[in-house]
Amino acid sequence: EVIDVASGFTQGWEFLASDNILYFKPKSVRMGGSGQEGRTMEPTAGTWDTNLMVRTNRRMYDFDLKLLSSAGNSGKALQNQRVAYRVEFQYPEDEAASRAKASEKAKTQVKLDEKVAPRNWAYSMQVGDASDGIAPTMAYDDGRFTYLKFPNNRDFPSVFLVAADKSESLVNTHVEKDVLVIQRVAREMVLRLGNAVVGVYNDKYDIDGVPPTDGTTVPGVKRVIVGGKQE
Length: 231
Prior knowledge:
Blueprint: E1 2-7, E2 13-18, E3 21-26, E4 29-31, E5 39-41, E6 50-56, E7 60-65, H1 92-113, E8 123-127, E9 138-141, E10 146-149, E11 158-162, E12 168-170, E13 173-176, E14 179-182, E15 188-193, E16 196-202, E17 225-226, E18 229-230
């Protein structure tokens, strides 16, 4: 990121910094003083040369700015190896670090996208009156989350955890493709949508389940805190 810009002829050049990009161009200079009629000097090749120092949050740069004239009367830009309309710096070590980070992120995403093997398929349900529309066609858990599959083109119900005293509490869920993922494993849950209700029972409930390792249940993936945010 560009932090500061300095030049020996700031009156004759216009600078504009935007993030890690610096734009600049020559500009006319208004001349004149007390008792003298003011006049304007236009940018002229050979007289507008100056130095340029750029400080970023990582490095310092020094440049020579030279204003070149157009070639002859044709108006074509001067074909000269010294002319640069855009200068871009590339650093092998930064690019290597960026590629390594992108590769590691891609590997992590692949692991996150991999389906965790089911541990328990022993589920049963009790369907209330006129509640077939929210009855799952498949249910299993991986020791951490519970997965319910429903017929196509159906609205997903809300999911409630049933406690030992039969009180109910709403459970967080998310959707993976056409599967409703319940972020809990429980002995009993209730699905509700309008007046429809379905009880879902874990017939082989394991109270211990699968404990998270390194903050996640995905093997090979570790959750760390970066800048106050979990990654």
